[in-house]
Specification:
Elements: H1 2-87, H2 95-123, E1 131-134, E2 137-141, E3 145-150, H3 156-167, H4 170-180, E4 182-190, H5 197-209, E5 212-219, H6 225-239, E6 244-249, E7 252-254, H7 256-264, E8 272-278, E9 307-316, H8 317-325, H9 336-344, E10 350-353, E11 368-370
Parallel strand pairs: 3-4, 3-6, 4-5, 8-10
Antiparallel strand pairs: 1-2, 6-9, 7-11, 8-9
Amino acid sequence: MLTVLSTEIVNLAPLRTQIGNTLRPQSITMVDKMQTRASSARVFRSRIPTLLVSMFATFASIYVAGRLWQDSENRVYLIKELDRVIGQGRSVISVDDTLKIIACREQHKKLSALEMELAAARQEGFTSMRSTEINGTDYKRRPLVVIGIFTTFGRKNNRDAIRKAWMGTGAALKKTENEKGIIARFVIGRSANRGDSLDRAIDNENRQTKDFIILDTHVEAPEEFPKKAKLFFAHAAEEWNAEFYSKVNDDVYVNIDALGATLATHLDKPRVYMGCMKSGEVFSEPSQKWYEPEWWKFGDKKSYFRHASGEMYVISQALAKFVSINRAILRTYAHDDISVGSWFIGIDVKHVDEAKFCCSSWTGGAICAGV
């Protein structure tokens, strides 16, 4: 029995081998198919983003093309409108041209206002009639000129003569200020012996007349006149917002109506230095009356540069402020008229040689005269 079974098993071995050979290729074929399907799936998945990018690019191209087409239509429309406007005789004005036109109109308005003010000034005592404004409120009339009458100790008689002749006192002084815009003050420093009888006499006089500018930091002395001029212009520019500032000696008669009329014609000049212009000899000998210690600075010909006579001269507000700002570094020479002229020789200033300021010769229409 066992022998028979062994024989059968042996006979079945070839059959098993044949079945195994038959099944192996089939299993290999199924594995290959599964791998192929997986690969196809990966390929399909990788094509989806590419497709989306292609669609987005297509839509973007369509959008951009549409906008370009719309812009081109707008440009064509604008060109047609431009042609139509030009064809009707109108002009195309740039932004710069428009701003220039606006500026010109503003300047024209200012010019018209100044002409009206000048006409009013001529009718009301030649005052400038221009006012200072704060927050749009007209609160104070700007003076036309501040006159500083340079005086010294012991010359009360001269001051009284000036008050009586043309300056006025009390109500008359105020009326000249309010109606003509002309402010006049005597200018004096302090005694070398501070608080002595000279100082007390000036203080007493000022309490009665109230018409002094007392320069407390200045020592009154003939050789200090140039520094006195500098301090006066600086003080006056800080105290009054005037159009002009004038220096006058205390032996000069001033025709304030003629002065106002002349100054009114120079309101359009921002930096003006006005007077009886001269150019005299530079004296280099100490024994001479008008000795100039620094004579060598004025060249070999020993002649001063052009400057206004010291009896009376006028400077505009801008120049007075220039003196006030630079007072610490402005050089002074032996005489106040030379010193003042030197300050303006190197800057952009309009020098006005006006014969009416030549006080040595009294003529019709003259502004000043020596007395």
